[in-house]
Design goal:
Blueprint lengths: L7 E3 L14 H10 L10 E3 L17
Parallel strand pairs: 1-2
Length: 64
């Protein structure tokens, strides 16, 4: 299967924007431009790497 950038992005709630697997708004827009014929349905591979990732940063808890 072909997918954007031929890699798997992380689907976890990680907040580490420096990670190469972080799926940013810029990556989302890049995928839309790359998959021109149906930009809202670009094939993008995702997996949750949070359990084994050494650079995983969990989100800060918001006070209620």
């Amino acid at each position: 299967m072909i997918c954007y950038k031929d890699k798997t992005f992380c689907s976890s709630n990680c907040t580490n924007e420096d990670c190469h697997r972080f799926f940013s708004d810029e990556a989302r827009e890049g995928a839309r431009k790359w998959w021109r014929h149906d930009p809202d349905n670009a094939p993008i591979a995702f997996s949750d790497f949070s359990g084994t990732c050494p650079v995983y940063i969990k989100p800060k808890q918001e006070d209620s």
